[in-house]
């Protein structure tokens, strides 16, 4: 079973690599190996009735499968170099933006037509943020919504399966360099290829670390983002979300001078569980279909931590905090902001009496027992800062879900063509540590495919 190109991982990077390779019409033999299911078979058992919390499936349907962890996200594609990754350092700033715009065109062509492209440039909100010690980052944002995002992926899959061999529920255990290319050891057997693309996402960080260690590919430690997901009435942030939809706002704390940022804003959305390597964390979704809208908006507040000497395992640090949350709450913990600042735990009765109804069934508790003081102090400072531009953010009834952790793979040493020390062996998307978003991961997939086509 010899292929011209084998792609490990069917997330955004892998999908757009395959798309660009197929588009080249070189009659290439292409295979994609994926740990999870095909798109139509990805179903999380949590229904809110019989199953109310994560049951820790062997393979998480939210994190793995065709579309990757982004399949059930709210489908936000940010076109910017200011956040989401450092792809521009390898391909150039304008080239990176052009790649992201190209990805946007494909998404629109495959079902995203009619969705809105927002922009944060030249807005009064940016000035208002600066006046209050906040910084609004520039970006164009295409919001597909969880529902339209699924349609786009479905259309892309239907197109790709005509020319690409997909191996679902087929984890790859090892990759070996050979004289003629690479050998892939998968559950279904052994396969060879001339070019190999690894795109296993954040959830594949431990596996990627193992592969790099076995193949002696240089890496360096990366950061981990730790924080909470905030849920509040949609009307509080409506003046921002109506105009910008996704607002990436940064704040430098007075006490420790740490950077706190908003992340993954979901107007009229829902808060959801997420399972990464057996650890239950929290995330958020939103839909384009207005019939699925809620009365709440949610977003993450995250603080980045990077460790070097003598402790280098940033992800391990984040995992230990998430495991502590799971130990105390059996999963995700929810706390009223008013309870947090008063130094008391939230109880079920206090949650029931809240003026806002939570969209996720979580365990009431005390986040101060889980999140380190420095990080939690920064989050509280940020909430009071946001209250100046969005009055109501610091209300007692605002809900905080914890913990939210964004794991980043160690940064893999790659060159301008995005290949590793081995020619024809590429590491792309979020598992490379270079990209941290749907748009950057997808763009890296396009770039690598074009590099391979050039060599052919």
Structure description:
The protein is α+β, with helices and mostly antiparallel strands and 456 residues long. 31% of the residues lie in helices and 26% in strands. The strands form five sheets. The chain has an eight-stranded mixed β-sheet with strand order 5-13-14-17-12-20-18-19. Strands 1, 2, 7, 8, 9, 10 and 22 form a seven-stranded mixed β-sheet that branches. α1 packs parallel to α12 and α3 packs across α12 (438-455).
Q: Which stretches of 5+ consecutive residues score pLDDT under 50? A: none
Radius of gyration: 21 Å
In total, how many beta strands? 22
> Outline, from the CA principal axes?
globular
Q: What value does the average pLDDT take? A: 93
Give the termini separation.
Answer: 20 Å
The major sheet is characterized as:
8 strands, mixed
Features:
456 residues; alpha+beta; eight-stranded mixed beta sheet; seven-stranded mixed beta sheet; 12 helices
Short description:
This protein has 456 residues and is of the alpha+beta class. The protein contains twelve helices and 22 strands.
Q: What is the strand and helix layout of this fold?
A:
Elements (H helix, E strand, L loop, with lengths): L1 E7 L3 H12 L6 E4 L42 E4 L8 H4 L1 H20 L4 E3 L4 H8 L2 E3 L3 E4 L1 H16 L3 E4 L4 E6 L4 E5 L2 E10 L6 H11 L3 E2 L3 E10 H11 L4 E4 L6 E8 L3 E7 L2 E7 L10 E10 L8 H16 L3 E4 H5 L6 H5 L10 E2 L8 H17 L9 E9 L3 E2 L12 E3 L10 H18 L1
Parallel strand pairs: 1-2, 1-10, 2-7, 10-22, 18-19
Antiparallel strand pairs: 3-6, 4-6, 5-13, 8-9, 9-10, 11-21, 12-17, 12-20, 13-14, 14-17, 15-16, 18-20
Helix pairs in contact: 1-12, 3-5, 3-12
């Amino acid at each position: 079973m010899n292929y011209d190109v084998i792609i490990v991982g069917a997330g955004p990077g892998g999908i757009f690599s395959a798309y660009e390779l197929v588009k080249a019409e070189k009659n290439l033999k292409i295979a994609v190996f994926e740990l999870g299911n095909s798109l139509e078979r990805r179903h999380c058992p949590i229904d809110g009735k019989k199953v109310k919390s994560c049951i820790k499936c062997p393979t998480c349907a939210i994190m793995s499968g065709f579309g990757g962890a982004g399949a059930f996200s709210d489908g936000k594609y940010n076109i910017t170099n200011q956040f989401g990754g450092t792809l521009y350092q390898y391909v150039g700033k304008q080239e990176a933006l052009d790649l992201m715009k190209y990805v946007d065109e494909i998404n629109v062509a495959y079902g995203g037509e009619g969705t809105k492209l927002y922009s944060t440039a030249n807005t009064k909100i940016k000035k208002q943020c600066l006046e209050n010690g906040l910084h609004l980052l520039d970006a164009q944002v295409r919001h597909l919504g969880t529902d339209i995002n699924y349609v786009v992926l479905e259309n892309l899959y239907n197109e790709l399966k005509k020319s690409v061999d997909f191996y679902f529920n087929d984890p790859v255990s090892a990759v070996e360099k050979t004289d003629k290319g690479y050998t892939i050891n998968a559950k279904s057997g052994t396969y060879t290829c001339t070019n190999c693309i690894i795109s296993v996402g954040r959830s594949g960080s431990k596996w990627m670390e193992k592969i790099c260690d076995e193949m002696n590919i240089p890496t360096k430690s990366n950061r981990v983002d730790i924080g909470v997901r905030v849920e509040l009435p949609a009307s509080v942030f409506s003046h921002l979300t109506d105009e910008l939809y996704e607002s990436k706002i940064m704040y430098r704390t007075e006490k420790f001078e740490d950077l706190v940022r908003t992340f993954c804003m979901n107007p009229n959305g829902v808060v959801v569980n997420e399972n990464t390597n057996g650890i239950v964390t929290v995330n958020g979704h939103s839909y384009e279909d207005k019939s699925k809208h809620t009365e709440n908006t949610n977003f993450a507040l995250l603080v980045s931590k990077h460790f070097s000497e003598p402790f280098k395992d940033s992800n391990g640090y984040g995992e230990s905090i998430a495991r502590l949350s799971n130990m105390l709450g059996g999963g995700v913990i929810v706390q009223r902001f008013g309870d947090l600042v008063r130094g008391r735990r939230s109880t079920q009765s206090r949650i029931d009496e809240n003026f806002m109804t939570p969209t996720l069934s979580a365990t009431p508790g005390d986040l101060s027992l889980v999140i380190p003081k420095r990080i939690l102090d920064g989050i509280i400072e940020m909430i009071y800062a946001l209250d100046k531009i969005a009055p109501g953010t610091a209300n007692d009834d605002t809900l905080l879900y914890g913990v939210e952790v964004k794991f980043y793979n160690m940064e893999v040493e790659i060159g301008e063509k995005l290949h590793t020390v081995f020619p024809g062996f590429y590491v792309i998307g979020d598992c490379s540590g270079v990209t941290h978003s749907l748009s950057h991961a997808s763009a890296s997939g396009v770039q690598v495919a074009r590099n391979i086509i050039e060599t052919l």
